[in-house]
From TrEMBL:
<dbReference type="InterPro" id="IPR015424">
    <property type="entry name" value="PyrdxlP-dep_Trfase"/>
</dbReference>
<keyword id="KW-0808">Transferase</keyword>
<dbReference type="InterPro" id="IPR015422">
    <property type="entry name" value="PyrdxlP-dep_Trfase_small"/>
</dbReference>
<comment type="function">
    <text>Catalyzes the removal of elemental sulfur atoms from cysteine to produce alanine. Seems to participate in the biosynthesis of the nitrogenase metalloclusters by providing the inorganic sulfur required for the Fe-S core formation.</text>
</comment>
<keyword id="KW-0479">Metal-binding</keyword>
<dbReference type="InterPro" id="IPR000192">
    <property type="entry name" value="Aminotrans_V_dom"/>
</dbReference>
<protein>
    <recommendedName>
        <fullName>Cysteine desulfurase</fullName>
    </recommendedName>
</protein>
<dbReference type="GO" id="GO:0031071">
    <property type="term" value="F:cysteine desulfurase activity"/>
</dbReference>
<dbReference type="InterPro" id="IPR016454">
    <property type="entry name" value="Cysteine_dSase"/>
</dbReference>
<dbReference type="GO" id="GO:0051536">
    <property type="term" value="F:iron-sulfur cluster binding"/>
</dbReference>
<feature type="domain" description="Aminotransferase class V">
    <location>
        <begin position="7"/>
        <end position="368"/>
    </location>
</feature>
<dbReference type="Pfam" id="PF00266">
    <property type="entry name" value="Aminotran_5"/>
</dbReference>
<keyword id="KW-0411">Iron-sulfur</keyword>
<keyword id="KW-0663">Pyridoxal phosphate</keyword>
<dbReference type="InterPro" id="IPR015421">
    <property type="entry name" value="PyrdxlP-dep_Trfase_major"/>
</dbReference>
<keyword id="KW-0408">Iron</keyword>
<dbReference type="GO" id="GO:0046872">
    <property type="term" value="F:metal ion binding"/>
</dbReference>
């Protein structure tokens, strides 16, 4: 066992940033209820609205368009509903169209019944088939209601980046609404939601150096809004009842101010190039999924033919490296990743995801490759 650990699972969750930690600890002393009108309540409300501005500024939208939730899953569940309001008028969505490689929080289709869900296939590189999306939306029966499309900007397993702008153009032409999951995208690339062309966006704090248990959905306007998922005291302008967690929200806001710099992006790309070149050098039976597509520069998802992902993951863990296995073990059986299956990849032994972050160094990558070489060598004995 290595005496020190190297964390290479940033797509699962990120370490808490110093700014987020300081904001969280400071906010713990602001104990008032933000809905109270007295001084203590107003102090909590001020922190809440500061964070709302921080989230809005990062995404180049208005603070009033930010609704805090317990995380991305709740945000998705709120947005993925057939029932919306535009002012006092009801707006009905009769069907939701979802990418085949979506995170489960989108893939489960929220509050839409099973017969009201349509899957849009991806190609072998993990990119949404735009012609299929356009064809299905053209055939959508608007007499029953409007179409809704939900898509992730970047896949958390492969890192594949979707052509969100092109998708938005197709959705807009069909008179539909586009929900964009930017949970994985936002911490790795600059985001201006206006240029994406979506109507609603989903974010989570713990993917960008914030704490777990807090996220938001962000609208590009205030006219069209979903029927609330959680009813009660009417917090968050009635769109998400329940007393807001001011410390978590304050930390979320602080994390949102930590934008990736050009230097960060260059460093991330250098790590990926070093890693993937080394992997290919060490094994001729290795495939990197989505390698031919635009990808997040921090993400490498690979498999070695004849070598189980669990074996690799345990070997890396013993060597001091935290990585994710792209397969799940249930009752002794290895299950293939749904993302890889949707891409037409048969990977019975599973895959390994390496996702780097701000604190990952080139030496970490070299040490990881050395550990990989030893695992391969031992597997042949």
């Amino acid at each position: 066992m290595s005496s020190s650990r190297c964390y290479l699972d940033y797509n699962a969750t990120t370490p808490l940033s110093d700014a987020a930690r300081n904001a969280l600890v400071s906010a713990l002393d602001v104990y008032g209820n933000p809905s109270s009108v007295h001084q203590e309540g107003r102090a909590a409300k001020a922190l809440l609205e500061k964070a709302r501005r921080q989230v809005a500024n990062r995404l180049h939208t208005e603070p009033d368009h930010v609704v805090f939730t317990s995380g991305a899953t709740e945000a998705a569940m709120t947005l993925l509903t057939p029932d919306y309001k535009m002012g006092r008028s009801d707006v009905h969505f009769s069907k939701v169209y979802i990418g085949a490689t979506e995170h489960p929080c989108i893939g489960k289709a929220g509050r839409f019944e099973k017969d009201r869900q349509e899957i849009i296939d991806v190609d072998e590189n993990g990119i949404i088939k735009l012609d299929e999306l356009e064809r299905k939306l053209s055939a959508h029966d608007k007499s029953e209601g409007l179409p809704m499309v939900a898509i992730q900007a970047a896949n958390g397993e492969t890192g594949v980046i979707q052509p969100v702008g092109n998708i938005a153009d197709i959705v807009k032409k069909a008179g539909g609404v586009l929900i964009v999951d930017i949970v994985q995208y936002i911490g790795k690339l600059p985001v201006t939601i206006g240029s994406f062309g979506g109507d609603f966006y989903i974010v989570a704090a713990h993917k960008i150096g914030g704490p777990k248990g807090i996220g938001a959905f962000v609208a590009t306007g205030s006219a069209l809004m979903p029927q609330p998922l959680i009813l009660g005291g009417g917090q968050e302008k009635g769109f998400r009842s329940g007393t807001e967690s001011v410390p978590l929200i304050a930390a979320f806001g602080a994390a949102m101010e930590q934008k990736p710099t050009t230097q960060d992006l260059d460093h991330s790309k250098a790590l990926q190039m070093r890693l993937e070149h080394g992997l290919h050098q060490l094994s001729n039976n290795l495939v990197i999924f989505g390698e031919k597509s635009p990808r997040l520069s921090n993400t490498t998802y690979f498999a070695v033919e004849g070598l189980k992902a669990e074996t690799l993951q345990i070997g890396f863990d013993l060597a001091g490296f935290a990585v994710s296995a792209g397969s799940a073990c249930s009752s002794g059986k290895v299950k293939q990743s749904g993302v890889l299956a949707a891409m037409g990849c048969h990977v019975p032994d599973g895959a390994i995801r390496v996702s780097t972050g701000k604190h990952t160094s080139l030496k970490n990558i070299d040490d990881f490759l050395s550990a990989f070489e030893k695992i391969i060598r031992n597997s042949k004995n």
